[in-house]
Each structure stands twice: as C-alpha cells, then as structure tokens.
Design goal:
An 8-stranded mixed β-sheet has the order 1-10-14-11-15-18-16-17, sandwiched between helices. It has an 8-stranded mixed β-sheet with strand order 3-2-9-5-6-7-8-4. Strands 12-13 form a two-stranded antiparallel ribbon. It is built from 9 helices and 18 strands. β5, α2 and β6 form a beta-alpha-beta unit. By secondary structure, it is an alpha/beta fold. The chain is elongated, with a radius of gyration of 23 Å. α1 runs parallel beside α5 and α7 crosses α9.
Amino acid sequence: NKAGVYLEKEFRKAGADEVQCQPFKIDINTFPGKMAMSVDGKKLMPGIDFNLREFSPGVKGEYPLYYIDTLNYDSKRIFADLEKPEYKDAFVVCDFWFSYKHGADFKRLQSKDGSKNRGIIYTWREPLKFYKAYGEKVSDKPVIWVSSSFPKDAKSVGVDIENKFLKGYECFNVIAKVEGERHDECYVFTAHYDHLGNLGKKTFYAGAHDNASGTAAIVTLAAYYAKHRPKYDIYFIAFSGEDANLRGSEWYAEHPVVPLKQIRYLFNLDMIGDNNPVQYCEVSDPGEHGYQLFEKINAEKNYFKSLNRGKLAGNSDHYPFAQRGVPCIFLENEGGDAFQYYHTTLDTWENAIFDSYEPTFKLVRDFIERY
C-alpha cells in the first residue's frame, strides 16, 4: 500500500490527465512477527536457510525429526512410525520433488486428521523461493522449505514462528489515464506493484525485478504519452494483489473503469528488467493478429534476437483479461542473469539489470503507432 501511494504521486508527476485508486479487499496470511528456526541447536537464517509456505500457521517448540526413506519408500511404515512415542509431534523431512510424486501421502501428512506429525520440512535448491499465491487460508500444519544444506541426520528442530491472518485487508489498484484524440477505444498497460512483504521482522522481499521493473516502465510510458499525445486514450494500471493469486487484476476485470470491449490491445509488463536477448511472451487468442505485428516490428528493428511465445497461463495479470476475450500480450524477460533471484531476498536493486527495458519500451511504442 505504501508503494501504491507512491505510484499515485508518480503518475501525477508524469503528467497523467486522471489518476484514481480502485479499492478491493483480500484475505491473506502474513508473517510479521517472530521468525526463528534451528536444527540441533544451530540457528538458521530466514529467507536464506528456510522459509514458510504462505498458508502455514505459526508454531513454537522443539520437535523431533523424521526423515523419509526415499530409497525404500513405504507409506504404511511411515505412518506407523509416526505413531511411535519417539516421533510424537515430529517434523517430517523430505525432498520436495520426491514428495511431489507421492502427493496423496503428503497431503495426508499435512492434515491434522491424517497423521500425528507436527509439520513438514521440504528441502529445496537455492536460492529459496517464497510465495503468496495460496495465502488466502491457513493450513492445519506448518510447511517449511529449507535449503539443500539442511543436515541429513539431525535429531531435532526448534521453531518460533508467528503468523497473522488478515481478514478483509484493504488493497487498491492505481489507475492513470492519458487522453488521446479518440475516446471510443483505448490501449491499456498493466504491471503489478505488490510483492511478498516480510518473512518475520528483519527479512524483506524487495521485488526489484518482480515487479518494480514493469511498474517503473508503465510510469515512464505514461510520461512519454503525456508529451506525445496518442490517437486513442491509454490507461496505465498498477495492480496490487498479483502475488496473492491475481486478486487485483481479477477485481478490475470484473469492475473495469471502461468496458473491456473497448480495449484495442492490453500490454502486461512483468519482470522486464533482465539481459536475455530473447523476449518471452504469451498472447490471448484475440491478440493473435497483434502478435504478428509484434514479430514484424521486432524483425525489422532487431529489438530482441527473437520472441519466444509460450502457452497462455494464469501466471500474471494479463490472464483475467485473456479469459474475457481481450486482445493482450504478456511480456517478461525471463532466463537472464536476474531471473534466478525472483521471489527471493536477493531480488534487490543491486542485482537488478535493465538491458531489456529500452527494447521493450520501443517495441510497444512502435506497435501502438502501427496497430
């Protein structure tokens, strides 16, 4: 919300003709308090050595560890072992991808009625990712992700983790408009300004690449079109709630400030600051004709080595519009040197790269001139 207030001021400074905030509410689980974990007495660092699945409840105490035998996997033996006194309230430890192959068993381990374990610890490659997409609820048991350096034969784990579930938390989308010569149709630029917040009091996820890069881009685009008046109105929408499962864009798509049928084309800019010479994109079915123009412009100007078109997915804010028949494209510069840091504590301005910003800007500018 602090970022949203800042963006409202920036759009006004950029010369937008209208700026408004569109409020909506979400339910979201957060971790603003204590965030401590140790294994056999050795302290672990939040965000680096461990983090939480977004739906985890708080937990406090010292608990035994039970390691899953992945070479001789026997689910009946696992649940029988967890009934034994020495494993009372144990945390089950397993590689995440192995657990993925035995989903039904691990779903049972996460349920308070399915097994007597206290929680689950999944090992994961570094850097550890943190998410918010399924944070609209709190699960029965905590699920903790740890780095691959987590010991393979530890005896116990100590945890002191606090969660706070926010019911009806107030968020808002920031909507700016630059007037064109015609008002019967419009273009729309979108980018999400929310990220992941805190994991405890000291660990913060800045989100420089994801998605300060896209958000900054739509502010500079607003400034450009305020000085170079377009033929059609252009809206610039900074969404909140994207990392909480596209909540802001879904709300807007249900409550648009102009009818969705008036959108000539929508551009969603998410993680555009990187150095991959190949630009990733997704396109809605009604946006197919526009995509052909994107490819033609790029071939003429060599902004990117090529455009890599992926399958349309619900992975960013273009998706609610694509589902409703809006011509749209999702632009993301993935796979460069900065991409490894997204959703980690290392996604900071120090690790940010801006190579793909200028060619992205020019590509969408040229598109609007010729579409």
